[in-house]
Design goal:
The structure is a homohexamer of 238-residue chains.
Chain A: E1 15-19, E2 27-33, E3 36-45, E4 58-65, H1 77-80, H2 85-99, H3 104-107, E5 111-120, H4 125-146, E6 159-167, E7 170-173, H5 177-180, E8 185-192, E9 197-204, H6 211-237
Parallel strand pairs in A: 4-5
Antiparallel strand pairs in A: 1-2, 2-3, 3-5, 6-7, 6-8, 8-9
């Protein structure tokens, strides 16, 4: 049985990254994974929220979909006067994932906000937001160091995310929308370069899954994250 | 090294369940896990949201904390005019978990809403909401069958949830607030009676974690869920 | 003609009070009057709103019903993005009533917020909130004195509330929901130990009422408040 | 001791009523009591809210203050995204009071909304809203009958409201702002032509009050309502 | 062909101005243009928004319609929890227009808010708000000077606004509602005493319009503004 | 004196148009005018709002800026729970402008929503939204015809928009952000291919402007619109 777009079961979609897409942001990237397109912008402010210890920094994320990112137009959050609960869940995940990449003491009293705006959604927008958001964050950190606003780069290491799932009882890496909408089980992993976990979210949407299946999905994700970090490095070390 | 409340590393907190605490709900339970107290109420309505296929049912959940459930008073959501993003994340988890327990065709055109209101929060409120919410759901389903409103009980099997974490490099089951606030890694599992996974959420709040550590935490959770399902059975089969 | 639950026309429902139900609040009580259950929590903060004179304190109240407190589930305020107008009216009443019990100069620069959350509503929730809220307030004041945060107890005397009404042309004390929904006239009194009035709200829902009838209802309430204050004393002086 | 504006203790402020101030409303009146100015407009719609029995009508009220109605400008409700709790309390009172004047079966399936917008506030705006709102309501009912949209006038009798209070231990009728802001006790009465009560709200803002004092305040209000109904009649029967 | 109210094509509606209608505002006016009635109140505060340079002042406007200002009742903004987009557009226009009349350095660190509340709307409410708002602003400025709160009057000159439109291919000045609702083209001008433009908004609602037509409409407006400024002068210089 | 980017006073910025940028929308375009980038998506729905006559269609627009579209990050509308008044003003302009291009009878009972999301803002975003929105609209109309959902193309002709302004007393076409922020006068024109006006908005932000100056700005805009329509044609007729 073949995948809809001809990929092997453990093959990522084509990834295209355009750094600097938004010129005014301290760091920005347009990341495309297959037909999914997310604009990630990192903005730096010289103040931190009240819960942050003095002298330390903070990293947070916001996630939103444009109204016509999907097959059907959806109403804007502001016209419903509420942040979509799905967006709330996702932006908390992205924020936690990117905070794990940063030494808050080295960042000093700066807040970096990563805005992840989905221009087009075709599956995997939350993990694409982490992978792209990391690059925007890294570009902004580099700019802070170059401008002498902080003395050391606060990044602790690469972070990327990918999903895997069980479709028709086969495990598949990096589900596109058509696969995702038929998946029985869906698992998202955020990992570092060493293959260690930062965030793990698994959902048995169509059926329960065994611990063995869960492990197989994590292994698949580990392969995907490794490849994504290689791509991040190409962009950031060129 | 001992736990703050003297428990073994793989020991649940004391669980106390009061079914029928809210008399008007079709099903209700006050569930106490240590100092955490959650009131779970199941309400049945004869209509379903638009996305549900005709002839099928729906299960959804809402989660909220009373303003003085915690050590500090927090403002009510309504006075901030927004559902707390944390509550949004949790109620999506509880809803997905309890939907996994129900055959929507057998439920027929009914919506069951599980309200999980935290009267006191001392760690583990999201998994306690699933464990208690399942009992409220089961009581409501039983009432529907007894009243002849549906012909077959739509429940597919027991579902419960528990957390485990890594504190001072030791894995611990069922973290209380003091442990949770110092945990490096935190993992929530929702499982069925067969030890299969329904939802899995792991977060490296203080550090990354290896796949081996993740597996150890899942094993610990499986033990806890087994014990919780035994308690659910006692209540429901008495 | 007998009342639905066999009470005499001037008889209170059974009152059950559980102080300390919420362990983190400076003062808390679960008060049950018949099937009505209200959790009252008093929280102390070291700051006052802008309109309060320097050196003085403030007491305020918030009132809310859990979604399944009643025979039908109601939507949460936050999902409608507005405080229910009925809750707004009631929490203003509770706040004014409890402020009347406190010497704001003795309280000093503290705000005490009394959260009254109705877990189950079977009539009389607003007056039950005042009666229970007073105990929570008293427990919090005592704790402030014991902790040396204020030098003198700021309470000026006991305060409690009760309703009376005209049902089938008979005056009845402490209406339960079934009586309340058929009442022609409904009157709520908040009084002190001397039988003096603090708040008085009378409504001719089904018909007008004479000044004589109004006086008879106030007399009935005075009897009820006297008994409630005796119960408050038992709890607070034990 | 004299009142600030030279009135006797039991004397109303000068009342000026301009019917038809808003030309498009089915009924409207600009009512001025001293410096208080309220524009009351009655609007008729051919549908009723869900809770109203088929074939019957409904009367409701909305109350709001213009931002510069008072000595200080206040922010608009919409800019705070919430109905002021005080307005919520008042519009519930006005709605209940005016519903008491109407036979809902005779009104048939119409909703009459009475908008009470305070152009200038100098004390007594809630009772002025009832007194003026009644005239707007009566004008709208008359228009419905004249247009043959209903066959019988649904009004059951006159309704008006007034306040009285205790200032410097003297009872005074119809408090202006300066008196109101110093009042120890404040009582609002809504009554019919027979001197029977429809709504009664008394508040011990500065001190408690005895049942005797309460009765004296009601007697004073009865005198005021009688005079206000005479003025309503002049307008409506001319 | 005659206009509905018998006016010549270039004739203003009857203008009636009642200064001091709202007694507590620093400046106020009830302005009536035909059946359009707008209450304009100017309120002075001793602080400015963050974007204003130190030592300078600010002028802003708010615009709202009472629910029954029009032929049909409309819901209040607060009950929809959003400022009507039309009101947002208009209050930005009024604010910009009146700021053009003020020397912000002479105003010093004061904010003047002009509240324009439409009591009755019969066309031309936005330009009537500017014309009336200017008088309220001028009265407030005069009061500031008289009270010694600023040393020089900050007004730079008169400002007024009027609309013109194309109805049945004829250009008409100062459209009333019936004309406005049939107009193909609608143009609003805010001008000073010298006939110079401050704001210009033209809309081809029913068809496009040529540059020549646009110029003719501007000329017509210039005539109207001249007459309105003469009326403003009468009020302010009497 | 030279312009900051070396353009002649009557020269447009470089325009780049990418049709089909959002693949799921019925019509879409990424339009870049200098550094301004707007994503315009047209979405078709088979229903119309209540005010639209039966058998006719409707065109509406929504406008929003991504949080980091500008030099400073701004908070999202949803986190402030209100549509920015500036966005409200602009989306009304875009909607009116594009409706002028459509024969609503030929469109039949469809609503086309044009979402204009500013990915980067460097001046002229409102007119760029009209120019790009027209292309998205045209692409969607073409798709409706090709799919046989409507029988005739409902477009009546090309529509585009441009701004001009007075900077340092010189008239300039198509202001970029740096020019715009120093402009004394700013004028936006929406025109058709015949050079007729559809919308005209002029603002004297820094000083008043004469009718002659206004005419000169309109002439400049007419030149710009002509060139923009030529570019639209290239895209749509290729």
């Amino acid at each position: 049985m073949n995948r809809i777009d001809g990929r092997a079961f453990d093959e990522l979609r084509c990834v295209k990254i355009t750094p600097g897409f938004a010129e005014f942001a301290e760091g920005s990237v347009l990341i495309e994974c297959g037909h999914t397109k997310v604009l990630c912008c990192a903005s730096v402010e010289e103040r931190t929220p009240p819960h942050v210890p003095m002298g330390e920094g903070w990293v947070t994320a916001e996630y939103s979909m444009l109204p016509r990112a999907n097959r059907e137009r959806s109403r804007r959050d502001v016209s419903k006067l509420k942040l979509s609960p799905r967006s709330a869940e996702i932006q908390r995940l992205v924020g936690r994932s990117l905070r794990a990449a940063v030494d808050m003491k080295k960042l000093g009293e700066h807040t970096i906000t990563i805005d992840c705006d989905v221009l087009q959604g075709d599956g995997g927008t939350r993990t694409t937001s982490v992978t792209g958001g990391y690059i925007a964050l890294a570009l902004a950190c580099r700019k802070l160091v170059e401008a002498g606003r902080i003395s050391q780069n606060p990044l602790k290491g690469y972070v990327a995310g990918i999903s895997a799932g069980i479709v028709d009882d086969r495990v598949l890496l990096d589900l596109c929308y058509e696969e995702d909408s038929r998946a029985m089980v869906d698992l998202n992993c955020i990992m570092n370069e060493q293959g260690e976990l930062i965030e793990l979210q698994g959902t048995g949407e169509g059926r329960t899954f065994t611990v063995d299946e869960q492990q197989e999905l994590v292994r698949l994700c580990a392969k995907g994250v490794k490849e994504l970090i290689a791509i991040q490095k190409e962009i950031l070390e060129q």
